[in-house]
């Protein structure tokens, strides 16, 4: 029988945030993602350099150390194209350290859309182009093939699984959400409804969110969480099952939970404790699927994400602004693709990154619970305003194309 | 309670705020004697006792010279002022003080609550005579009233003394609190911020009349967006910046009309400015509005702009929201501190205001989300909460049970 193991999967991402881009910039300047002010988190270089110092550099160093120390330690990463572009520009050493991790052969890269977009819900063709673009980028940069897919925000439904199955993926990731699972445990490998070959891995959100959201919360009854305690929970959870899927943002380590919360030491210590048991191991996402063939089928007809208590898409597609922005954005698809203008296509795609829609979310804003709202904009309305001004400029450039104004 | 006006004899927001606050306080169990400087009937005020300090008519409360203008205020010490000279506003104030002196001798108050500089001297005198705690409630300072200019030194002096003598100060926003701290040197811990509210129940089920602004309604049906402001045309309101922003917005989006409802010393200047900028056909001046025309101005507005250079609170922004407009406020308006579903800009930043106006006009979704979401916000603030905060304050001071 195969060992019982933890499947640690970390998601690495940074969006190209739109600068304070006014209607007077529209049709005059095309530098939407180039905020000049250093006083704001709209400045992409500033954010990337900050998070590189707080999270990417120390966490990659720790992962490298753990890989050296423990032959059984493994990890899976999804790294968005928008992150790679920014890191190549402003923190090339971080790219090099990711390459070293992948070179150990025990770090798997997970497939996704290059632009961290919600294209699946708007245009299947565009979605496929972005998955392919990401796959090619991973090939070029790391020299590896991807075989397990995750969609942006872990937004998942049966149709997506059926698409991934036909596209030849061996696995796909989703949230292990109670109303869907009912009595079932997320600690098994499943088969998505209506598929033949693909396996489904479900996030154990209790144990994942203990780290991602609760670790440094002093109001939490379990604070401060020790690695012994967490190891007990993991042992209790895996009991008579096979895997624990710990899925979270990579930036949990050092950015969402700062170094002074003890997150790095905690994690290092926990990995050691978990592996003290000779029956325990770590799996990559495909390793877990190879070791544990799917036993039962799960169906999720409605889209489930890893966000909020609702686990739906309302943080991205919940209000009229978000719907209007996305509608106008995807309406341009045919013309943009036909233009063949690589810069225009990439600017348009960078506007598809789901973070832009998230910044327009008003569902916590009116409750006055601003703490739930992470955004570099003063309000969701400002986020929408700058986004739409940029989108109008994209439309203007497209119009110039059709007039033969300039060539891309 | 020492005030200068109550509806329907009010010239601005002060009377409205005093009325609703008193009503809510009475419901909390406070027994209120409210002093005004004139003699008139006030309907629906049975929850308190109103005292007339003079026999003057309501319109004469700023002196028989007519409307109040601090430029004409010269005499500082009330002992130099002739209480029989009711042509002079200082004369009216002196009578007001004398009335309050007599009143507190007959009836010892538990607390004295004085609104703005107009009643501060009476408040100080009452405190001196009764030793009851003095709460000075600041709705506006002379710095706000005079825009970017300095204002009247006599008024400044009275405000300074009143603020110094007060046991506690209530400011209607952090903006006002900061002015009191920075300009008058009052310690911040003596001041509490209590925001004004809006009584939507009292505003009732008002039926909007489309015929009031027929021309604007016609333009709206042709796809125009009406951008309105309802205010006094004084420097404090920042309207020249508003008109400049209108011209900038029209460069990018031509289906906009601007409604300037109200009147004031800047009217001619604003009309000239619109002409100079070549946008006269897109800017509408109503002249002084009240009643139906006033409420319909909010109703016809798709976007309401509060462009103030300095605005302690700014109740009209809440009224506009209630009548269904998307709201833009300058960062210099206190009301912005309690609203999130609005756009904010610095009063001088005409390009930002123009961008926000065009953004709303060009996007039905943005306009809809702004209008709908703000309703969740202003309905959360109530005069009952204001009254509770005041009662709490009265009780804390000298452990008085009111």
Largest sheet of chain A: 5 strands, parallel
Helix content of chain A: 40-55%
Distance between the termini of chain B: 13 Å
What is the average per-residue confidence, as pLDDT of chain B, rounded to a whole number? 91
User: How many DSSP E strands of chain B?
Assistant: 12
Please compute the radius of gyration of chain A using only Cα atoms.
21 Å
- Give Rg of chain B in angstroms: 22 Å
Number of helices of chain B: 15
Describe the overall structure.
The complex is a heterodimer of chains A (408) and B (402). Chain A is an alpha/beta fold and 408 residues long. Chain A folds into 2 domains: 4-298, 7-stranded beta/alpha barrel (Alpha-Beta Barrel); 314-402. Chain A is 45% helix and 11% strand. Chain A has helices at residues 44-69, 81-90, 92-103, 124-142, 158-166, 178-181, 205-214, 227-238, 263-276, 285-291, 314-317, 320-331, 333-339, 342-350, 354-359, 380-402; strands at residues 4-12, 75-79, 107-109, 148-149, 171-175, 190-192, 199-203, 243-249, 280-283, 296-298. In chain A, strands 1, 2, 3, 8 and 9 form a 5-stranded parallel sheet that branches. A 3-stranded parallel sheet of chain A has the order 4-5-7, with helices on both faces. A two-stranded parallel sheet of chain A has the order 6-10. In chain A, helix 12 packs parallel to helix 16. The model of chain A has no long low-confidence stretch (mean pLDDT 95). With 402 residues, chain B is an alpha/beta fold. Chain B is 43% helix and 13% strand. Chain B has 15 helices and 12 strands. Chain B has helices at residues 13-27, 89-106, 116-130, 142-145, 153-165, 174-184, 200-203, 214-221, 239-252, 267-276, 291-300, 315-322, 350-362, 364-378, 383-396, and strands at residues 33-36, 49-52, 112-115, 134-138, 168-171, 191-193, 225-230, 256-261, 283-285, 303-306, 326-330, 343-345. In chain B, the strands form 3 sheets. Chain B has a 6-stranded parallel sheet, with helices on both faces. Chain B has a 4-stranded parallel sheet with strand order 3-4-5-6. In chain B, strands 1-2 form a two-stranded parallel sheet. In chain B, helix 9 (239-252) runs parallel beside helix 10 (267-276) and helix 9 packs across helix 13. Chain B is globular, with a radius of gyration of 22 Å. Chain B starts with 12 loop residues before the first helix and ends in a 6-residue tail after the last helix. In chain B, 50% of the residues are buried. Classes of the chains: A alpha/beta (408), B alpha/beta (402). Chains A and B meet through helix 12 and helix 16 of A and helix 13 and helix 14 of B.
């Amino acid at each position: 029988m195969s060992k019982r193991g933890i499947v640690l999967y970390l998601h690495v991402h940074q969006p190209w945030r739109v600068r304070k881009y006014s209607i007077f910039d529209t049709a005059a300047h095309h530098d939407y993602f180039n905020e000049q002010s250093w006083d704001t988190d709209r400045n992409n270089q500033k954010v990337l350099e900050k998070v590189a110092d707080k999270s990417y550099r120390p966490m990659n160093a720790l992962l490298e150390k753990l890989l050296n120390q423990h032959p059984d330690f493994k990890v899976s990463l999804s790294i968005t194209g928008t992150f790679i572009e920014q890191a190549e520009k402003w923190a090339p050493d971080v790219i090099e350290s990711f390459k070293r991790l992948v070179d150990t052969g025990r770090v798997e890269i997970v497939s996704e859309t290059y632009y961290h977009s919600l294209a699946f819900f708007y245009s299947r063709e565009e979605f496929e182009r972005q998955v392919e673009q990401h796959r090619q980028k991973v090939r070029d940069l790391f020299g590896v093939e991807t075989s397990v897919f995750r969609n942006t925000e872990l937004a998942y439904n049966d149709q997506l699984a059926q698409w991934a199955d036909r596209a030849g993926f061996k696995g796909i990731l989703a949230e292990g959400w109670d109303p869907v699972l009912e009595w079932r445990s997320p600690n098994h490998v499943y088969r998505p409804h209506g598929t033949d070959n693909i396996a489904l891995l479900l996030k154990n959100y209790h144990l994942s969110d203990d780290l991602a959201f609760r670790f440094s919360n002093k109001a939490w009854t379990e604070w401060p969480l020790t690695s012994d305690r967490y190891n007990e929970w993991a042992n209790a959870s895996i009991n008579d099952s096979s895997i624990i899927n710990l899925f979270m943002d990579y930036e949990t380590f050092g950015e969402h939970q700062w170094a002074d919360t003890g997150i790095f030491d905690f994690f290092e210590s926990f990995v050691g404790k978990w592996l003290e048991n000779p029956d325990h191991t770590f799996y990559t996402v495909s390793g877990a699927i190879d070791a544990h063939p799917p036993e039962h089928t799960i169906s999720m007809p409605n889209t489930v994400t890893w966000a909020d208590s609702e686990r739906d898409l309302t943080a991205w597609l919940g209000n009229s602004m978000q719907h209007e922005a996305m509608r106008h954005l995807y309406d341009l698809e045919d013309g943009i693709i036909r233009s063949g203008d690589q810069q225009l296509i990439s600017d348009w795609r960078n506007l598809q990154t789901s973070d832009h829609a998230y910044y327009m979310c008003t569902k916590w804003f009116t409750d006055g619970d601003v703490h739930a709202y992470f955004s570099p904009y003063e309000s969701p309305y400002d986020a929408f305003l700058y986004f739409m001004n940029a989108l109008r400029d994209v439309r203007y450039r497209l119009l110039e194309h059709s007039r033969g104004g300039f060539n891309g | 309670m020492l005030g200068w006006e109550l509806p329907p004899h009010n010239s601005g927001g002060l009377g409205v705020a005093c009325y609703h606050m008193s009503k809510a306080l009475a419901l909390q169990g406070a027994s209120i004697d409210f002093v005004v400087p004139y003699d008139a009937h006030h309907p629906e005020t049975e929850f308190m006792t109103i005292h007339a300090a003079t026999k003057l008519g309501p319109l004469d409360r700023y002196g028989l010279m007519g409307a109040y203008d601090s430029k004409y205020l010269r005499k500082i010490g009330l002992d130099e002022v002739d209480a029989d000279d009711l042509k002079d506003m200082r004369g009216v104030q002196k009578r007001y003080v004398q009335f309050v002196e007599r009143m507190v001798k007959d009836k010892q108050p538990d607390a004295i609550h004085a609104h703005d500089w107009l009643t501060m001297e009476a408040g100080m005198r009452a405190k001196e005579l009764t030793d009851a705690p003095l709460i000075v409630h600041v709705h506006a300072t002379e710095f706000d009233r005079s825009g970017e200019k300095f204002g009247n030194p006599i008024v400044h002096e009275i405000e300074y003394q009143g603020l110094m003598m007060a046991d506690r100060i209530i400011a209607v926003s952090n903006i006002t609190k900061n002015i009191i701290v920075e300009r008058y040197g009052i310690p911040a811990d003596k001041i509490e911020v209590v925001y004004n509210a809006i009584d939507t129940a009292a505003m009732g089920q008002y039926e909007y009349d489309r015929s009031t602004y027929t021309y604007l309604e016609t333009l709206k049906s042709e796809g125009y967006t009406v951008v309105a402001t309802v205010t006094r045309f004084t420097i404090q309101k920042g309207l020249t910046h508003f008109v400049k922003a209108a011209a900038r917005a029209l460069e990018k989006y031509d289906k906009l009309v601007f409604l300037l409802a109200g009147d004031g010393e800047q009217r001619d200047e604003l009309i000239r400015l619109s002409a100079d900028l070549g946008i006269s056909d897109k800017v509408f001046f109503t002249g002084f509005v009240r009643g139906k025309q006033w409420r319909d101005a909010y109703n016809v507005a798709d976007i309401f702009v509060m462009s103030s250079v300095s605005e302690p609170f700014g109740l009209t922004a809440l009224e506009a929201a209630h009548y269904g407009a998307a709201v833009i406020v300058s960062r210099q308006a206190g009301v912005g501190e309690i609203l999130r579903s609005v756009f904010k800009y610095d009063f001088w930043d005409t390009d930002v205001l123009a961008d926000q106006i065009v953004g709303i006009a060009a996007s039905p979704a943005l306009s809809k989300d702004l209008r709908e979401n703000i309703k969740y916000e202003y309905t959360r603030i109530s005069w009952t909460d204001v009254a509770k905060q005041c009662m709490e304050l009265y009780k804390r001071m000298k452990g008085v049970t009111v």
